[in-house]
């Protein structure tokens, strides 16, 4: 019983000592916290507004599924002989995965996007919301002549594909949920963000369309050659089915605009910024300033005791 009473007394003493110490160091803690708070306001205001645009897509697996079903119907041996083994045919999930990996590749960026987006990606300093005008850095890009300037050593300020690629990766986000894909792009201008989403979708569909068209042409040439050189009636029927499927694929590449990804929710121009969260930045920096102020006051008190 006596021990419990002593513990309570010690607790009261500790709390009283803490409150007294905090009051004594209020100026140090307050000034430190105020410095961090004011600095956080200036820092938050210096950050550019970032807007996002996103599109909801669904992967079209019709052409890949048809080839997979045909390969299964033919059986492993005959399909492999014809160059359409089940292990070589990509199912719908693999086609979608391949398309998304290509979308995030340096090759795709350089071939389809680099020249289209490099100015808005690198040379933009700010977006004039009232006039919907991108203000460019005239020290590196001449907006009147539409040419990149050169430095003192004669090197162009235009970044290479390799150096610009990292910024491209930072500005896009791809989230996949089964056959559904959400493609998001971030930029200082909501109009540019929307245009980039549309450009990405059109470009990846175009690339996959061209890739499948080339593969189908090669496969048809190969199958026709094999059918001419074989004398087996059963194989002739198999080759005819394979040629028919490849011809269907070529037809799809010519007539279908949304070849791999079909838009089910198109991108729109964002009305509000996505980041930065200036209020949260100010709150976190102020709390950090308070903790730093307490730590500084503790160190100062210890040093004072040592000197005394």
Detailed description of the structure:
By secondary structure, the chain is of the alpha+beta class. The chain has two domains: 1-47 and 277-308, no CATH class; 51-275, Bacterial polysaccharide co-polymerase-like, CATH 3.30.1890. It has ten helices and eight strands. A four-stranded antiparallel sheet has the order 6-7-1-8. A hairpin with a 4-residue loop joins β4 and β5. The protein is elongated. The model is unreliable at 1-10 and 64-89 (pLDDT under 50).
What are the main properties of this structure?
308 residues, alpha+beta, Bacterial polysaccharide co-polymerase-like, 2 domains, 4-stranded antiparallel beta sheet, two-stranded antiparallel sheet, 10 helices, elongated, disordered N terminus
Outline the secondary-structure elements.
Elements lengths: L1 H23 L1 H21 L4 E9 L2 H13 L1 H6 L10 H12 L2 H18 E5 L4 E4 L4 E2 L4 E2 L12 H11 E6 L2 E8 L2 H40 L3 H23 L5 E5 L12 H30 L1
Antiparallel strand pairs: 1-7, 1-8, 2-3, 4-5, 6-7
Helix pairs in contact: 2-10, 3-9, 6-7, 6-8, 8-9
Major beta-sheet overview: 4 strands, antiparallel
Number of strands: 8
Structural class determined from secondary elements: alpha+beta
SS field, number of helical segments: 10
Range of strand content: 5-15%
- CATH topology name of the largest domain, in short, is Bacterial polysaccharide co-polymerase-like
Provide the CATH top-level class of the largest domain.
Answer: Alpha Beta
Give the CATH architecture of the largest domain: 2-Layer Sandwich
Shape: elongated
User: Strand order, biggest sheet?
Assistant: 6-7-1-8
Q: Which residue ranges are poorly predicted, with pLDDT under 50 across at least 5 consecutive positions?
A: 1-10, 64-89
**Radius of gyration from the alpha-carbon trace, in angstroms:** 32 Å
Q: Strand-and-helix sequence, N→C?
A: HHEHHHHEEEEHEEHHEH
Helix content: 55-70%
Overall pLDDT metric: 80
Distance between the termini: 39 Å
Tally of domains: 2
């Amino acid at each position: 019983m006596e021990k419990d009473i002593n513990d309570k007394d010690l607790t009261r003493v500790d709390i009283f000592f803490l409150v007294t110490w905090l009051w004594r160091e209020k100026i140090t803690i307050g000034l430190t916290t105020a410095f961090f708070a004011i600095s956080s306001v200036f820092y938050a205001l210096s950050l550019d507004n970032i807007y996002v645009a996103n599109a909801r897509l669904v992967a079209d697996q019709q052409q890949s599924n048809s080839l997979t079903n045909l390969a299964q119907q033919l059986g492993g041996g005959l399909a492999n002989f014809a160059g359409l083994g089940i292990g070589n045919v990509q199912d719908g999930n693999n086609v979608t995965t391949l398309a998304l990996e290509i979308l995030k590749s340096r090759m795709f960026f350089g071939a389809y996007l680099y020249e289209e987006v490099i100015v808005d990606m690198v040379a933009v300093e700010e977006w004039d919301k009232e006039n919907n005008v991108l203000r460019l850095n005239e020290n590196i890009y001449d907006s009147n002549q539409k040419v990149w300037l050169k430095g003192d050593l004669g090197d162009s300020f235009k970044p290479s594909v390799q150096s610009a690629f990292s910024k491209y990766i930072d500005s896009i986000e791809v989230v996949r949920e089964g056959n559904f894909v959400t493609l998001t792009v971030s930029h200082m201008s909501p109009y540019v963000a929307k245009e980039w989403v549309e450009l990405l979708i059109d470009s990846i569909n175009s690339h996959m369309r061209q890739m499948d068209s080339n593969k189908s042409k090669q496969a048809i040439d190969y199958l026709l050659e094999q059918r001419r050189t074989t004398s087996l009636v059963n194989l002739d029927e198999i080759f005819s089915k394979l040629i028919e499927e490849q011809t269907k694929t070529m037809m799809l590449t010519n007539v279908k605009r949304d070849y791999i990804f079909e838009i089910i929710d198109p991108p729109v121009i964002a009305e509000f910024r996505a980041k930065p969260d200036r209020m949260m930045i100010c709150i976190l920096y102020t709390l950090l300033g308070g903790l730093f102020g307490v730590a500084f006051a503790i160190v100062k008190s210890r040093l004072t005791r040592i000197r005394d």
